[in-house]
Amino acid sequence: MESEEDCIFCKIAAGQIPSQKVYEDDRVVAFRDLHPVAKVHVLVIPKKHYRNVGEIAAQDPDLLAHIVEVAEKIAKDEYNGSYRLVFNTGLDAGQTIFHAHAHVLTGEHLAE
Ligand code: 5GP
Ligand code: ZN
Q1: Model's pTM, two decimal places?
Q2: 8, 20, 34, 89: which to mutate for ligand 1, most atoms within 8 A of CB?
Q3: Is 41 a catalytic residue?
Q4: What integer pLDDT is reported at residue 38 of this predicted model?
């Protein structure tokens, strides 16, 4: 797997930093956000390092579809299938970790 030194999410994907994993396969890992903003707040990340969701879309659209499928599965396993999927992209959008990740927010009725 391609990874970047000093990338915290590459280290989580590799198991070098502990996380509360809820799902893993050969392409992605899903784990609970350290600072949840919903009753269920899970991050789905590709194991391979991409800077943001646009890079995934351009380079591996199947992987992007897979991330959405995993988000669906989490929302069905942990709630009733409703979920919000957020990809913060760029500093002004609040992206703080430059390893692409989907925020899956679910587990309750979400405010607008
Ligand atoms: P961003 O702001 O880049 O869209 O989202 C980064 C998210 O990663 C934040 O919601 C933050 O709480 C979460 N986060 C940052 N560091 C860690 C960590 O070490 N472990 C986990 N589980 N989540 C983290
Ligand atoms: Zn990374």
Answers
A1: 0.97
A2: 34
A3: no
A4: 98
